[in-house]
């Protein structure tokens, strides 16, 4: 429904961008032309209504109902409170238990955020069949060992999902690593000369 809402809003915005400027410019500049166009349009509508009165009334009523339904649907979609989807827990015998995708995301965020060099975690959980598809967008320090850190994150995520929460992964665990920027004074620190200790280190020769 989010896609439908966006499409409707895009259409309304495009129509408004085209129609409103024309109306706002043409009406003050040439009111006579607007009056003539309005009279012509009204005359045509009146002629069509006289020729096919029932069809004209039916079309207008159908259009009114369609507009009312679409506006009501959009209003309901905007006002209703979306709830997170729930996934069935597989390790419960005799009873049925479910956990929401929001709860999964919160627990993953909390546990992965405890790892060293991890700055932020943004999980995206999607219910897929009897399991969950997990995508982790992780921001880390700029100097991490990427393979080792990815393996560490994967291990923690699997422990949380499969062992602690009793869920099943649908497909592979997707981990996207993003490095945080280096400090602004990083290049200056690298170029800075070594401090003068006041003596030279002597290396004994064998």
Detailed description of the structure:
- The protein is α+β, with helices and mostly antiparallel strands.
- It folds into 2 domains: 2-79, no CATH class; 86-182, 2-Layer Sandwich (GMP Synthetase, Chain A, domain 3).
- 55% of the residues lie in helices and 16% in strands.
- The protein has helices spanning 2-29, 31-51, 53-79, 101-112, 146-164, 186-191; strands at 86-88, 98-100, 118-128, 131-140, 174-179.
- The strands form 2 sheets. It has a 3-stranded mixed sheet with strand order 3-4-5, covered by helices on one side. A two-stranded antiparallel sheet has the order 1-2.
- Helix 1 (2-29) crosses helix 2, helix 2 (31-51) crosses helix 3 (53-79) and helix 4 packs across helix 5 (146-164).
- The radius of gyration is 32 Å and the shape is elongated.
- The model is unreliable at 199-206 (pLDDT under 50).
Q: Secondary structure elements and their pairing?
A:
Elements: H1 2-29, H2 31-51, H3 53-79, E1 86-88, E2 98-100, H4 101-112, E3 118-128, E4 131-140, H5 146-164, E5 174-179, H6 186-191
Parallel strand pairs: 4-5
Antiparallel strand pairs: 1-2, 3-4
Helix pairs in contact: 1-2, 2-3, 4-5
Residue stretches low in confidence (pLDDT < 50, at least 5 long) are 199-206
How do the SSEs run, as a string of H and E? HHHEEHEEHEH
Q: How many domains comprise the coordinates?
A: 2
Please count the beta strands (DSSP E, at least 2 residues each): 5
What value does the average pLDDT take?
75
Annotated CATH topology of the largest domain: GMP Synthetase, Chain A, domain 3
The CATH homology group name of the largest domain: ANL, C-terminal domain
End-to-end Cα distance, whole Å, is 80 Å
For the largest beta-sheet, the strand count, sense and barrel status come to: 3 strands, mixed
* Binned strand content: 15-25%
CATH architecture of the largest domain: 2-Layer Sandwich
Q: Helix fraction?
A: 40-55%
Structural class: alpha+beta
- Rg (C-alpha, Å): 32 Å
Lateral strand order in the biggest sheet: 3-4-5
